Write the structure tokens for this entry.
Amino acid sequence: MPTTTPARVTVVVPTFNEADNIETLIRAVRTQLPDARVLVVDDGSPDGTADLAAALDASLGSIEVARRTEKSGLGAAYRFGLRRAIDDGAEICVQMDADLSHDPAVLPALVSIVEHGADVAIGSRYVPGGITLDWPPRRRWVSRWGNRYAAGVLGLAVNDATAGFRAYRSAALEQMEFDSVRAEGYGFQVEMTYRLVRIGGKVVEFPITFRDRAEGESKFSGSIVREALLLVVKLWVADFGGRRRRRARGG
Ligand SMILES: Nc1nc2c(ncn2[C@@H]2O[C@H](COP(=O)(O)OP(=O)(O)OP(=O)(O)O)[C@@H](O)[C@H]2O)c(=O)[nH]1
Ligand SMILES: [Mg+2]
């Protein structure tokens, strides 16, 4: 009987000032995925997040902390972290926030979905069974309609293209050349989704309960929403030639 070796998994966690959350998060990740590596990508948090994570490595092991000096945004942190994880041998890369909005109990399901053939498993708020708790109505509205807009304009059959809780097959990340994605905030997640769909990747959405952060400060801003709105138009325009060619071929 052939033995199946579990895929090598790295959980990439970008952090900026998450001292109140990082220990709880890392311990929960270790409980849910005991064999996974954790890569914390910290942008010089003044509150000592990186030191807390490094101290946990001493007791738990398999926790790497990438200490970057400047706060350069979520997209840059993910590009760096995913590249580092793949180069270090990860076959599946998970991305999740440090603020406990993403429930670590969902990790085994996301990983298993990729192990069973998906190129990305998205922890989704907008499929049946998915829900967002504690968000004010305005933020809920921006997220819900932002997703409808992005999916509608780009023709994505994805309900939560801005979600940040995902597991990717590393081979698919390479194929879609994720290093060249430029967007920073929600736009980063949208463009990653768009590229994956364009290479014919298989997307599976898994319902999650998303909770607003209980500790630490929000980095939500109008400018990252505007970036995402504009990006969708840019992607649509850039793909104009592609759509015409597909139509001409009858595809
Ligand atoms: N390395 C790095 N991490 C960041 C940066 N900005 C945000 N993060 C982290 O990225 C994750 C998501 O950011 P959040 O601040 O939770 O953004 P959000 O979920 O849109 O908004 P709130 O939950 O309301 O704060 C968290 O783990 C942050 O600590 C950054 O510039 N660099
Ligand atoms: Mg958050």
Q: What stands out?
A: The first helix runs from residue 22 to 32. The beta strands are 9-15, 37-43, 63-68, 92-95, 120-124, 131-133, 166-169, 203-207, 209-211.
